[in-house]
Amino acid sequence: MAERITYHRVYEETGPREGRRVLVDRVWPRGMRKEDAHLDEWLRDIAPSTELRRWYGHDPDRFDEFRRRYLAELGDPGHAGAAERLREMAAHERLALLTATRDLDHSQAAVLAEWLTRGGRA
């Protein structure tokens, strides 16, 4: 399943083999018009909580702890519907997880891609 799930910056050009494009940020990407995003879906409820996002601040030194806390959040009832929706999509089609974050390897999209390749389990 790993080859079917990728993650990219939402600002990048669309590729023909990306599959379903899903924005996984809670906040709309700065400076991007909705019609330019070429999204299939925006799953803002799968994004980390505002508190966790603010604590993390995209500091790579905090990534391991961010990852641990975010995986725990994915098991919370507030994420249940969005988590199930994402698992369902990943089971049936190629999936491109999109984020505005500059450092992709230290983003929630990277954590989600890993989580989905393990079957949506923390």
Automatic annotation (TrEMBL):
<protein>
    <submittedName>
        <fullName>Uncharacterized protein YeaO (DUF488 family)</fullName>
    </submittedName>
</protein>
<dbReference type="Pfam" id="PF22752">
    <property type="entry name" value="DUF488-N3i"/>
</dbReference>
<dbReference type="InterPro" id="IPR052552">
    <property type="entry name" value="YeaO-like"/>
</dbReference>
